[in-house]
Prior knowledge:
- The strands form five sheets. Strands 6, 7, 8, 9, 10, 11 and 12 form a seven-stranded mixed beta sheet that branches. Strands 3-14-17 form a three-stranded antiparallel beta sheet.
- By secondary structure, the protein is an alpha/beta fold.
- The protein contains 17 helices and 17 strands.
- It is found in: Cytoplasm.
- One of its GO terms (molecular function) is unfolded protein binding.
Amino acid sequence: MASPAGVSAPRSAASSSKTETFVDNKRKDDIRMANIAAAQAVANAVRTSLGPKGMDKMISTANGEVIITNDGATILNKMEVLQPAAKFLVELSKSQDVVAGDGTTTVVVIAGALLKQCLSLLSAGIHPTVVSDSLHKASTKAVEVLTAMALPVELTDRDSLVKSASTALNSKVVSQYSTLLAPLAVDSVLSVVDPEKPEIVDLRDIKIVKKLGGTVDDTELVKGLVFDKKVSHASGGLTRVEKAKIGVIQFQISPPKTDIEQSIVVSDYTQMDRILKEERNYILGMIKKIKATGCNVLLIQKSILRDAVTELSLHYLSKAKILVIKDVERDEIEFITKTLNCLPIANIDHFRAEKLGHADLVEEISLGDGGKIVQITGIQDMGRTTSVLVRGSNQLVLDEAERSLHDALCVVRCLVNKRFLIAGGGAPEIELSRQLGAWAKVLQGMEGYCVRSFAEALEVIPYTLAENAGLNPIAIVTELRNRHAQGEINTGINVRKGQITNILEENVVQPLLVSTSAITLATECVRMILKIDDIVTVR
């Protein structure tokens, strides 16, 4: 009896170990595949917008607004993405917009290509964690390779900065105006760089004012302040003031109201006369205090509780020879006070001469059919800010010009933060692919396969650039590989000429930060999607 028991015991242990090792992974694989497929669909949607010859998208919003753009961040931001993993790519594009400002389409296209490679690696039976760790190693190596390729640039080298901004603008709808907008973007950023903190640029110090009318050619940089509104004045009021003393006020020059909703019943005319007389005296008293400080220009913050100024107060202000600009937005106050080097005044009792700003000229300028603007120039002790007046023939062009200018400003900001340039036109991606492919042969085991797949995925950028330009992508990418293997590391696709050239000589350059952040952010996003094996819906 002992021997059968001795024989049967190992069998039961073996059978129990078999049942323990069997795990049904089909559901996990299905969810992973669904996530990858959804994210790839988003990447494919914006892929045709990549590069100077990329297509534009017309976006129609629910409220009837129409947007024409090829900016990846704008397209994805307006898309209604429902699948949770696909939303990662929308967030990925936003992250790239925050970090670098440019390359928002590139980062999504790279993420889509990496996911496609991951799909084949997972199908081959490689564990997602192994793939994820290998991608991390490959992205770290890629950043090292890019940094070794980069060329240092100084802020005094204005030509290089302008070339970089032009490259960013060449893929936009308003690319024909890049010769105007690129130098404008460079001058704007350089004028707000603080010598004490030379590596920090706050783009909030550059105010972009849009005004319908004219063409993008009429866009100009203004050393001072621009308001997209006309002067508020009664008949015969001022529209131009020289040697201006400017007060920024956050209170109202109008009769006070009760804090609670209540009505006052006036029964006879004498009482009504007394109320009107009190109102006049109240307003006159305020204006006399303002005039006593020598103030001759007032910027009045927008009020939601009551009118900032009334017809009566405007009449008295014009009599006192004070120019008024009303309805200044609350979020503009900080920029205005920084520019004018003055303090905002919250109460009439605090209105003093030392809180005023000083400028040589405040005037209302007519822009033909485009309406009027108010311009303040010759500001004394002006803060490190600047204004850009953007013009456009219609609202679509105006909005796209603003988005394009923002991208160009971000590119110059990248160069201030990290002062290195690399070639564009798909050159760094092909070089990365070549060097990572060679590195993969040295690695052992599964890592080598994964790194080789990462290297292949990077070829999607030159492939897509060629495809969107109407060239033969296979022939172009093959020729690029051949040239890079011969040591021509700056050879890329010249989509204007439709051939392969030394892209640095063609002045197609971009900041190092744009490429490095695109690769690191795309890899992070792909690793996150790979690690998800289940979706739990909480209601």
